[in-house]
Amino acid sequence: MAFVDPRKTADTLELMPGMQIADFGCGSGYWAVALAQKVGSSGKVFAIDILPQALEATRSQAKLQNVHNIETVQANLEIPQATKLKDGMLDVVMLSSMLAQADHREIVAAEAYRILKPNGRVVVVEWDMTDKKSGHPLQPTIARRDMEHIFKDAGFTFQKEFSAGSYHYGLVFKK
């Protein structure tokens, strides 16, 4: 497996029907649809992105997959409380390949903390584009240890690492 498969990964994340999840930086809905299928019709996924065209792509993908439990939210995640979601309402926040693009990563992590229930989890999938011979990054990304610091500084505890394919790493943090 070269690239991460959201459906296979979702199977390893202990997601249950009825859970409420936010997909930060949802892009084209790659993760949102897989997560929405996993939590079923009694659950809900808030697909959040700053770009209207990303939200439209997510809605289109959901429609194609006959998924009806996704709500799209346009928000700049680098502005505190921009999601307008209630404090402590979610079970999981998914962040896939979005934090490397953020200038204010601490604000993104704080928003995840704010909207998660006690014992809620943040699932991070990020590019691991390190040259295996030299150890140097091949493109801008966030090193695994730096990602741990971002979330620990926001109040999370590291829970586990999981396989996210050959080009990504996967981490789970708990509130």
TrEMBL record:
CDD domains: AdoMet_MTases (cd02440). InterPro entries: Methyltranfer_dom, SAM-dependent_MTases_sf. Gene3D superfamilies: Vaccinia Virus protein VP39 (3.40.50.150). Residues 17-128 form the Methyltransferase domain. It comes from the Bacteria. It holds the Pfam family Methyltransf_31. This is Methyltransferase domain-containing protein.
